[in-house]
Task: structure prediction
Amino acid sequence: MSRFIACVTGFALAATMIPLAAMAQPCPGNPQALGTKRVLEVDAGSTPRVGRKHFPSTLPLARKELVLTFDDGPWPGTTPKVLDALKRECVRATFFLLGRNAKAQPALARRTLAEGHSIGHHTFSHPLLDHMALAKAEAEIDRGIEADEVAVYGQRRSNPTTPFFRFPGFASNKALLERMSRRGLVVFGADVWASDWDPMSPEQELRLILARIEQIGRGIVLFHDTKAQTAQMLPAFLRELKRRDYRIVHVVPAGNRGISN
Result:
């Protein structure tokens, strides 16, 4: 009987590891790559707001699991370098596009999706929404979503393909958060950020973000793919995560586990 229980237990453990193993595939041209270890499905019903910088809870991540996110792109000159660095390490991230930038750089927006990253939304022109009239704030959100959807998918719609949204400056209020929840949009905050809106060298940014990640141990990491120092720092950052045994989790909408190459 004990042998039977051991066999069943071993089978159950192996079954739980199948999704992880499926993601941990060799990275073409880089056998030492950091890689993407697993996919996490996210929906507004179970996780309407995530990121402990602003909300009570975050994504269900294990110790040393990180979700990488980038705001404000796509931006010529920096976003391609960010995408190149991620591709070299076979890492999948989430990009919160600014509508006016997606409209100006549709090919770059489409490249982001084509390389397997999740596309989130960040308004059209980056205003702080918390003190705007609700109708005006939602119109800005819809305009950004529509611009992103046209750039990435060639279709104009305010009901986004990927229902992920981040408020510019994290400036939300109760009415807006409730409205996002009713629309089925997951609102992303962050658990840690690189403060890359401040002037600093790539080396300074690398030291800063690694120290902050070591302090929290897991969570949603915020960068800006519009920042030159971030684009320059990213290859070294990804290599260092690998050296420190961190694992990357890719967030996707519930019901969409497919990962493109």
Q: What stands out?
A: The CA atoms of residues 67 and 220 lie 5 Å apart. Residues 1-22 have pLDDT under 50 and may be disordered. The longest strand covers residues 65-71.
